[in-house]
Every structure is written in C-alpha cells, then in structure tokens.
Write a structure and sequence with these properties.
Strand content: 5-15%
Radius of gyration: 26 Å
CATH architecture of the largest domain: Alpha-Beta Barrel
CATH class of the largest domain: Alpha Beta
CATH topology of the largest domain: TIM Barrel
Distance between the termini: 45 Å
Strand order of the largest sheet: 1-8-7-3-4-5-6-2
Length: 579
C-alpha cells in the first residue's frame, strides 16, 4: 500500500479540503460455514447482532429524516420492519437448531431464499423492493455477526473526506456537507452523476483517480486539492499550512465573486450575455437565485420521473413547472422534455435490452413513440406557461421531421387546451438540444424553424469523437476544445444568428473556464452551467474584451490543429487580459 506522494484525478468540483479519510467501501463479509455444538450460543449471537443492526438502522433513519426529509427516510423505516420481522429471524433460529450450523451460514441461507422468492415476482415492484430491503438488512446483521463495520454515509458526524470506488445517487443524497468536506472516487468523469452532485452540494471533489481506495486507510489525514485535481496522501506540517493558506485564498476569491450576485453578465467592452443555471428539481432553484443566475438554461425533467414510483401525473408535473417558473419571475426557463434512456432507467417503463443504449431508444425517440406520456408532459408545461417565461426544448433531435412532429403535437395540445378554456401563454419559445452531430451539421436548416438552439456538449462531444465519456481508456478523446468541436459549435451559432435566433449551451463545457473565452468569441448568447459556476464565470467574462475573444476564436477554429494548441492559445489570451 503506497502512502507516498500524490494521486492525480479529475477535478470535478472546485475547492480545497484537509481532513481524515472515511472509507466508503464494501467490507469483506465472507465466512466459513461450520457445524456448531452450542446452538444456544449461536442463537444468542444472532439475537445480539439483530439488536445492534436495529440500533444502527434507527440512527440512520433519524439522521435521514433530519437531513433528507420524511420521504428518503422511508427506506430505513422499511428496513426496521424487516429486521424486526419474526418470520424471517425465527426461520434462521430454527435452521441453527435443526442443522447445527453457525449463525452466519443460517442467516445467509434464509435471506437468500427470501430474496430469490421476492425478486422473482417480476410483475410486482413492491415485492422486488422488499427483496432489496431484505438483502440490505441481512448484510447489516451479517456484518454485526462478523464484527465488521458497514459504512453508512448518513451517520457521519465529524469532518471527513469520503473515499469511495464510486458514489451512487443514494450515497450522495446521504452526504451531510457540514461534515463531508470533500470526496474522491476511483472512477467517473466531470460529467458523471457524482461530479454534478458535488457541484450542487458545493463540496470539493476529485473523480477518476483509479487507485485512491487502495492507497488510503480509514482516519488518515489527507489533502484534497480539487483546484488542481490532486490528492496529497501523507502531508507534512508545512504542506498542511501551505494548503490552509491556499484554501483561505480560494475563500477570498469566492467572496469576491459573491459581490457579483446582482451584477449584469457583461464583458469589459460592454457586450452582454446570459449566464443561466442547470437544475434537476424545483429544490435546486434556491441555488440558482443565490448565485444570481440570469435564468435557467436547462431543467432536466427526467428527475420527476426517476423520483416517482409511476409516471408522474399531469398535475404533479404542472405543480413542479409552475413552482420553477414563478420563482424565476420574468427570467427565461428552458425546460427539456423527458430525456430517459441511455443510463437513465425507470422501473415502471421497461425498455428493450440494447447493445448500445446511448445510441438507442431514448429521449425524443421514446416521446414520439409513446405519445400518451409525451402529451401529459406537454399539457402540464403549457398549463404552467402563464406563470413565467417558458422555453420548451426537445432533446436528441436528429432530423427535421422529428422536430416538426414534436412541434405539431405541441400545437395540437395548445389548441385542445384553448378549446377547454385553459389559458396558455403565447410567447413560449420552442427549441432543440443540439447533441447529435447530424443536427449540428444541418443547423442552417433547423434555424429556419426553431426559436433557439441549446448545445448539449456532453453528448455532442462523445458522439462526434465516437468516444464514450465514461470509458477511462478513451477519456483522452473527450476534448471540448478540439478544433473539430469548435467548428461545429461555430456553425450552430452562426446559423442561428443568420435567422435572427439565439444559441445557448447547457453542457458542462459552458461553465468550463478554458472554454468560456472561446465560446464568447464564437458568439454564444447563453451559457448554462452548474449554479455554483455562475459567479466565477461572470467574474472571468468581466475581464475579457469581446473583440479580442473574437480574434482568439477565429484563430482557434482556422489555424489550430490540436486541442493542445487551442489550450495554449486561450491561456495566453486570458493571461494577457488579466495582466
């Protein structure tokens, strides 16, 4: 186990943290099956393990209630019912007595049987959830029997840095940012779920280190420098002091940015752009307003579907959209219609097994095929349109005929609502997400029919480079500043302007500090990013001259051949502007 030096990774959320390690890894729960003579002793061991597991689950439930709310705590309520279910545990005791086997083996045999039985009830999602509950609970009782600590992020009550192979959405939901000062993972990229969550929690994060889990021990103090993307494993006292100073410098910078909350987003020479934020749920609007964003450039509505046990009703959706629109006043809100598929699955919408789901049945392709579901969403959106400045965006559009079909459906529904006497706004803009190269190449035709474009660079880059952004072996091809990508972006922006339309960008690239000067020079109208990047970007834009950036962008597109040349060019231009 190397304890020397530094480990490099991908800086996913800015900041600096110094704290002890909390390893959030799956512990070893292996055991031998052995015959026992003293069965009473085994039953007694089982009963003590149940008591311990019960108290752990109760603690987690109470913390989850405080930090996450009633709904998320339900999972642990279900776990309490399982651990106290006599039917399950009596069978384990019977097995210990009849077969004279150790408590671990008996517990595993009974719980495996129950799990298999419930998991097989495929048409009953309730029973399948019970299978997951039993699996979780029996693992906790097993851990208690083996004297092994099960990690539970919800119970962290001191300052730590969480280290994990990867963080699931439910892990990240349990992190309390008062205690979790940062996290570092083996896998992932800037656009993975955990990275996006870290930015909205505003905690420093480094992902994709490949080896961090095997390089640290519980309780060891480390430094996470998520400005540079490195972890310092055994810091000297001098290094700790140096990084404490860096951390306060960064805090000071953030306080500088905070003064720009109500400032306009404008370049040094007076050119105005829109700096918007991306959100997943109405709860995220708080962060948008606190960071002084000029609007919402992407509301990812699939979270409405993912957080629900069945298709969300028209009224549930209407309430969510209305809340967001009202809280943004007259600022624009771009709502993307349901983008399910790829890695985003719904338990109640079985999708075909596909070799390559990212190039498969997803987003607008599902919406146009399952129009009942799509119409519910469009009705809810149009009903909410009178409460703010709504812009509707269709994802994954490849052809003009897909856009025309989707737009026609929208117009039909608008007519239906008006006929029912429901008020609908007349100023709803309708646009598309540009993420498929086919649409980017044909932008000059699309621009005649859409009200706006929003460039989704996360997918546009991976489709243009034919490189899966989650695959570490080819992650070097995820190159936002490659002249090929910049040329596509330029064509999209120029096409929209030629028709008097606007172009935004809602991929991670929009808040990338190296990309911003280029995008400014290419004429991007709206930059939409994690809310926490807005002020930093506003501060950068205020130091740049549009005319200089236009020259920079022209050079990058016309003269540069590699991504390295573009990066060097930008670094030089920004240094000159800030001098």
């Amino acid at each position: 186990m190397s304890n020397m030096g530094k480990i490099k990774g991908i800086a996913a959320s800015d900041g600096i943290a110094i704290a002890p390690v909390y390893l959030l890894t799956e512990p070893d729960l292996s055991f031998e099956k052995v015959a026992v003579n003293d069965v009473d002793h085994e039953v007694n061991r089982l009963e003590q393990a149940i008591v311990q597991a019960t108290s752990e689950i109760t603690t987690i439930r109470d913390i989850a209630k405080q930090t996450l709310g009633q709904e998320e705590a339900q999972v642990f309520e279900a776990h309490l019912l399982v651990v106290q279910d006599p039917e399950l545990m009596d069978q384990v005791k019977t097995l210990i007595k009849d077969e004279k086997m150790n408590a671990e083996a008996a517990l595993k045999q009974v719980s495996d049987m129950f799990v298999a039985m419930f998991a097989a009830m495929e048409d009953n999602p309730y029973m399948q959830e019970r299978a997951a509950d039993i699996k979780d609970v029996s693992e906790r009782v097993l851990a208690a029997l083996l004297g092994v600590k099960l990690p539970s992020p919800a119970t962290i009550a001191e300052e730590v840095i969480v280290i994990a192979y990867d963080l699931t959405p439910s892990d990240t939901a349990q992190l309390n940012k008062d205690y979790v000062k940062a996290f570092v993972t083996n896998i992932g990229g800037r656009t993975s779920h955990s990275a996006i969550m870290a930015r909205s929690l505003e905690i420093p994060a480094i992902v994709g280190t490949k080896t961090i889990v095997d390089s640290v021990e519980d309780g060891q103090v480390i430094i996470v420098d998520a400005l540079e993307g490195q972890v310092i494993l055994n810091p000297t006292q001098a290094e700790i002091e140096e990084y404490q100073a860096k951390a306060s410098e960064y805090q000071a910078l953030r306080q500088e940015w905070a003064k720009l909350v109500s400032a306009p987003s404008v370049t040094k020479d007076g050119h105005r752009v829109e700096l918007a934020a991306n959100i997943g749920t109405p709860k995220d609007v708080t962060g948008v307003l606190e960071n002084g964003a000029d609007g919402i450039g992407l509301y990812r509505t699939e979270f409405l579907y993912m957080d629900s046990v069945d298709f969300p009703s028209e009224d549930d959706q209407f309430q969510a959209y209305k809340t967001v629109l009202e809280s943004m006043g007259d600022k624009g809100v771009v709502v993307r219609t349901m983008d399910i598929g790829g890695d985003k699955k719904l338990p109640y919408l079985p999708l075909p097994e596909e070799l390559n789901p990212f190039l498969g049945y997803r987003a607008i392709r599902i919406s146009l095929d399952r129009q009942d579901m799509f119409k519910t969403q469009l009705r809810a959106l149009l009903r909410a349109s009178v409460y703010g400045n709504l812009r509707i965006m269709f994802p994954m559009i490849a052809t003009l005929s897909e856009f025309r079909k989707a737009k026609q459906l929208l117009l039909d529904i608008k007519a239906e609502l008006v006929a029912e006497g429901v008020e609908v706004s007349d100023s709803v803009q309708v646009g598309i997400m540009i993420e498929i190269p086919a649409a980017a190449v044909l932008a000059h035709q699309f621009a005649k029919e859409v009200d706006f474009f929003s460039i989704g660079t996360n997918d546009l880059i991976q489709y243009t480079m034919a490189a899966d952004r989650m695959n570490e072996r080819v992650s070097y091809l995820y190159q936002p500043y490659n002249p090929s990508i910049l040329t596509l972006i330029k064509h999209v922006i120029d096409s929209s302007h030629a028709e008097g339309k606007w172009t935004g960008m809602c991929g991670e690239m929009a808040g990338d500090q190296t990309a911003v000067p280029l995008l400014l020079g290419l004429g991007l109208d709206e930059f939409s990013m994690s809310a926490t990047s807005v002020l930093k970007t506003r501060s950068l834009i205020a130091k740049l001259n549009l005319t200089d950036m236009q020259r920079l962008a022209e050079k990058a597109v016309n003269d540069c051949q590699t991504v390295e040349e573009v990066q060097a060019l930008v670094a030089e231009a920004v240094a000159k502007a800030q001098a």
